[in-house]
Amino acid sequence: MVSMSDAVFQEHLTKYLESIGVPPLTYLELLEYANQVLEQRHRAVQHLRNLDYWRNCGDPNIRIIQHTTCTSRSYESKCIPKEEEQ
Fold first, then answer.
1. Residue 1 domain-assigned?
2. DSSP assignments along 11-77, one per residue
3. Is residue 47 within 8 Å of residue 56, measured between CB atoms?
């Protein structure tokens, strides 16, 4: 069994984290950091929702497929591009 105060444990934890390149953040600092990263990811996803990004990114693996909506399920249904839909 190992016995120590919380202050001693925190000191050793901080030293160890620093030795492996991990910043010794408090719990609240970690939560703030996580919130910042989540907000950045949210903004990135919003950016990627822009069709112009995909049109202009130059990635040969990206294909733009025009979405159409059919006005009827019959064989002779009229299908129109989504942007022309009213």
1. no
2. HHHHHHHHHTT-----HHHHHHHHHHHHHHHHHHHHHHT-HHHHHHS--TT------EEES-SSTT-
3. no
Q: Are 72 and 80 in contact (CB under 8 A)?
A: no
Spatial distance between the Cα atoms of 62 and 39, rounded to a whole number of angstroms: 26
Closest CA to 69 of 86, 50, 52, 47: 86
Q: Model-level pTM?
A: 0.55
Please tell me the predicted confidence (pLDDT) of residue 71: 66
Q: Is residue 67 part of a domain?
A: yes
User: Both tokens of residue 45?
Assistant: 């996803």
Overall domain count for the chain: 1
Q: Average pLDDT of 65-75?
A: 71
How does pLDDT run across 14-57, given as a tens digit for each residue?
A: 999 999 999 888 889 999 999 999 999 999 999 999 999 999 99
Cβ neighbours of 79 (radius 10 Å): 9
